[in-house]
Each structure stands twice: as C-alpha cells, then as structure tokens.
Amino acid sequence: MSRQLLFLLLILLVSCTRGNRTDETSHRNDAKHTIGILPFNGVDLTLVKKIKSGLEQRLTTEVTILDQQKLPQSAYYRSRNRYIADSLLLYLSIANQERFDKIIGVTVADISTAKKPYINWGVMGLGYCPGEACVISSYRVKATANGSRHFINRMIVLAMHELGHTYSLPHCSSRICIMKDAEGRMNLDNGNTYCINCAFYLKRKGILKQE
Fold it and tell me: Which candidate in 2, 76, 162, 195 could, as Cys together with 174 as Cys, close a disulfide (CB 3.0–4.6 Å)?
C-alpha cells in the first residue's frame, strides 16, 4: 500500500473520530438534568407530587418520585428526638447509586446539623455544596404556614434552595433570592425565585428555564 493511500486513510479515520466526539458532547449538553425525590415514611405523597410539579415548572429537569423509605436509625439523635441531616445526605447518596444527577429527601421529622457554637442546630434543610444530595423537612415549615397552599409553596422554595446548593450556589446576600441564608429564621416567604446573578449561573449551566 502506498504512503499516499495510508495518509488518506489516516485523515478519514481522524475526521470520523472527531465527528463522533462532537456528537457525544452535543448529546451530553442537550441532556436534561435528572432529580430523584425520596420521601421518607410519614410524608404526604400529595405534597411530594406538588414539589415535583413545582420543580419541573421552573427547572429544566426530569423529576422522578421514588418509593417511600424508613428514616435510617443511624441518623437518629435520641437526646433531641431529631435526625442528623448530614447522615441523611450520606444515606441518600448511597441510595441514589448514581441513578440521578441529584437526589432530594423529604421528611416530616425534625432535622439538625452542627453549626458553631451549637453541636445540634435545628434546620429546615441541608444540601451538599456542591454535591449530589440534599434533604428538606416540613417540621419547621408547616408550624407557621397559613394554609395548604402557603405550606406547599414554602416547601417548593426550600427544595429549590437546597438543590441550588448542590449545583454549587452558596448563600446569597440578596434578601429576595431563594438562596438567602435563613439565619435561624423562617424566611421562606421573602421571595420565590433566584436573583439575577444566581439565575444567570443556573441558566448558563442549563438547569433553570429561560423566562
């Protein structure tokens, strides 16, 4: 075989390889992000469906509701009758088995985490930043809600906040942004969307729908 023929075959091989890589990259960029919702025992499945609908309306994600599971006893903090949120995140990551880009747990139980100077600080939710898993609790959210609609909206906002962390968003200084720090207060009613900067970041990553 001549050198010229070998050279032409090599060019064709490289061209085909580059074409395949381009197609694969394009497919990955166009693929929707996936989220799994894992409700722990005691959670109203109607609420879970509302959270799913709320996320799908705002995010470019495919949301799947998983079967209910018991809260792991390994996460139980007996002295305060709470579940350690950090342990729940680990449990969720293991349960996910990389099936979804993100997994969010929903519980009615009180949850907590360590926050200086407190060893056990009650929270509404917690998420890895960045990471795969987050968890939200209705325990503190429902206590001061003005009816079912108000409560559901709060839970959707809380879910978007914790998912924002998993997509690398830190707490935001804007008081009307979903990503603001709760600072120990119930502030889920101050806003139900991301600020311009946080929204731009999520849109650039292909996660937040264009309005």
Answer: 195
pTM: 0.85
Query: Strands 61-65 and 76-77, how do they pair?
Result: unpaired
> Please, which residues bridge with residue 37 across strands?
65, 104
Specify which residues 122 forms β-bridges with: 112
Bridge partners of 135, per DSSP, are 105, 126
| One pLDDT digit (tens) per residue for the chain, 211 residues | 444 433 333 333 333 333 332 332 233 345 789 999 999 999 999 999 999 999 999 999 999 999 999 999 999 999 999 999 999 999 999 999 999 999 999 999 999 999 999 999 999 999 999 999 999 999 999 999 999 999 999 999 999 999 999 999 999 999 999 999 988 788 899 888 999 999 999 999 999 998 7
User: Could you tell me the CA-to-CA distances from 26 to 23, 172, 209 in Å, in that order?
Assistant: 5, 32, 19
105: Cβ–Cβ under 8 A, 6 or more apart, which residues?
A: 37, 38, 39, 40, 88, 91, 92, 133, 134, 135, 136
Are 191 and 177 in contact by the 8 Å Cβ rule? The answer is yes
Nearest Cα neighbor of 134 from 101, 178, 100, 102 is 102
